[in-house]
Amino acid sequence: MLNNYKALVKLRKQQFDQAEQDLASANAMVRKLQQQKEKLQQESYSIALPTVGKGGQLAALMAQKEAMRRAIEACEAQIEAAKRTKKEKENALKQASIAYEQAKAIEAYYVKKIVEKEKRDIQNSLDEIASQRFWRDNVGVRMEDVE
Question: Is the Cell membrane keyword given for this protein (predicted)?
Answer without folding.
Answer: yes
